[in-house]
Here is the input.
Amino acid sequence: MTTQDLHFYEPKNGHGLKHDPFNAIIAPRPIGWISSRDGNGNINLAPYSFFNAFCYVPPIIGFSSTNWKDSAGNIQETGEFVWNLATMDLAKQMNATAAHVARDVDEFKVAGLTAAPCKLVNVPRVAESPVAFECRLTQIIQLQGKNGEKAQAWLTLGEVVAVHIDRAFIKDGVYQTGLAHPIVRAGRRGDYFEIKPENMFEMIRPD
Here is the structure.
């Protein structure tokens, strides 16, 4: 591959394409389907495309929101949230919770989902989802560029203090990722794909 074969750009100068390729290249990305509750008891449920796990011990997950969203505000107030696994069966409901609605509107009701109580946090989980992580806030970090200028994006990190898993997806003591048919972000806005067992493969590390 030569330089003539490459499309090169510096993000500060624009990408020169029809659509920004950044989030299409960083794919797949797990969906941060986050439920939270504010200090007045209002419930929120929203999906975030910048989400992942960051640490084994303690188990830490996090999501980044562009602009200050209700989820970050709620979590800052109460110190708790829940991550819910988005699956193919729940794709339409997950998408419905992305709607911009008033702060006091319950997205569980908007999407026709059941709010199930958690064990250790005072935030409901999505009962229809096969996996949920109960989390307690560890940090909220406003992101910044290399020049120190603050970005309008906040990374919310939480320690997983309790886990709910549908036993149907545990075989011989091993959680079967593909059986749940999780959906992930596959690129630019609106692009998703489904993880299926037949598309998964294993490679043994050289060490």
